[in-house]
Amino acid sequence: MALSGKHVRHLRSLAHHLKPSIIIGKTDVNDGVVEQANAALEAHELIKCSVLDTSSLDAREAADILAERCHAEVIQVIGRKFSLYRESKRDDIEHITLP
């Protein structure tokens, strides 16, 4: 799903206040991290992730790898943090409405 600039700006503003829910450490992007990210994306649609200093990946590499494996969109990468978005298929959550 291709997001427009307006959508990305809106999602960035929502992600600003989030705390990182996924932490990528020395094991980099493994199956456990992908499972956690998929579960978080299904529950919240928008998540923030953090890359520790012990990881061999920088934030951009980790964001691209995790987004590809989760079929999500990279919203923003700043320093060692990044945000991902994927529309959830669940009906029991409050969906993010894009302008």
Characterize the structure shown.
This protein has 99 residues and is an alpha+beta fold. It has 3 helices and 4 strands, in the order αβαβαββ. The protein has helices at 5-15, 31-44, 59-70, and strands at residues 22-24, 46-51, 73-78, 81-85. A 4-stranded mixed beta sheet has the order 1-2-4-3, with helices on both faces. The protein is globular and about 40 Å long. The two termini are 15 Å apart.
Strand content: 15-25%
Give Rg in angstroms. Answer: 13 Å
Characterize the main sheet: 4 strands, mixed
Global shape: globular
Strand element count: 4
**Which class do the helix and strand fractions yield?**
alpha+beta
A few lines on this structure:
The protein is α+β, with helices and mostly antiparallel strands and 99 residues long. Helix content is 37%, strand content 20%.
